[in-house]
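Pipeline run #58 for the internal structure catalog. This entry was flagged by the ingest filter as a single-chain record with no existing model, so it goes straight to prediction. Upstream metadata was stripped on purpose; only the residue string is passed forward. Reviewer on rotation: M.T. Logging verbosity set to normal.
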Amino acid sequence: MRPLLAAAVFVCLLLLLGGAGEAAGSLHRITGIDSHAVEVDGRAAQRIEITVKKAGLHYALSERYHADNQLLVELEDVALDEHLPHEIALDGAVLQRLVVIPRENHRAALRIYAGHDLRSADAYRMYTVPGTGREKNTERLVIEIFADGGDALSKAVMGHTVVIDPGHGGSDTGAIGPSGACEKDVALAVSLRTCDLLTKAGAHVVMTRTDDVDVAYAGSSASRELQARVDAAAAHGEAELFLSVHCNSFSNPDAHGMETYYYPKTDADERFATLLNEELAAAGGLYNRGVKYARFYVLKHSDIPASLAELGFISNPEEEQMLTDPAYQEILAQALFRAIARYFEE
C-alpha cells in the first residue's frame, strides 16, 4: 500500500473509532435494577430503582397501548448492560414483574406489571435521584407504585373547584421555540390533560380557555386579556384555587429548568406554589429553579390562592422537544394534579 494511502486509511480508522467511542460515551448505560417495599408519606409502595451511568436520562410514559395494570416507560439514548436481565420477577403483592425491552436506535422500554389498576395519576410516581461524590455522573430512575391504587389523592380533590388558566392563546402565541413550537399550544395541551385528571377524580374545573382563542377578544390589550382570565375565575364564586400554566423563554438557549411563582395575598399562595414546585421537580426531571415571588397580574388580582407554573424553557432546544412530547405532557399534568390534590389533602 502506498504511504499516502496507508496514512489516509489510518486517519479514517481513528475517526471511526473515535466517533464510536464518542457515541458510546453519550449513552446512558443501565447497569442495574432493584426493587423493594417502602412506605412513602404513610402509603405502602413498591419502589423500583434503575441505576444509570451518566446523568440526564430521558424517560417518559409511553402512549402505546397497554393494559390498565401496566406502565410502559420509554427510555432514550440508552445502552443496556450485557448482564442486565430482560425479565425480573417481583414480589407479586404490589408488582408482579418487570420486562426490559430493547429497541432500535439506542432506545429501550420498561414494562411494569402490577396487581391492580394504575390509571389514577396518584397510583405511581417517577423521578430521578442524582449521584453524589465520586458517583456524581450517575443517577437513579425511581418508580414508586402505590399499593392503594391511588385512591388517597383522588379522593382529596372530589367536590373542590379549581381554575386552570392555559397561558396566552389566540392572537398571542407566547414564546416560540427554536423549532417553532408555541407556548400557547403546550400550555393548553398540559392544562387539558390536567383538567381531565381532576374531572375524573370528581373535581369541578373552570378553564379560562379550552381552545386556541383569546380569553377577552383578539387584539385586546395585555391588561384586558389578563383581567378576562381573572374575571373567568371570579365568575365562579365557589372557585378555591387558580393555576396558570406557562413555558419559560430566554435569549440564551442554554437557559433551562422549571419554576413556580406566587404573590402572597393569602396565607396559602406560597404553599400552593411550593407543592407545585415539589411535584414538578419529582416528575419532570428538569433543573429546579425554585419557588419565587412575583407581581404577575393573575396572581395579584385573583381573590383565591394562585400560582403560575413555568414548565420549562421552550427556548431551550432540548426542553422544547420534551415540552411538545405528548407523553411528557402527561407526566407534567400528573404532577400538577398531585400538587392540587395535596393542597386539598393537607
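catalog note: The chain has two domains: 27-148, 153-345.
catalog note: Confidence is low (pLDDT under 50) at residues 1-22.
status: ready for reviewer M.T.
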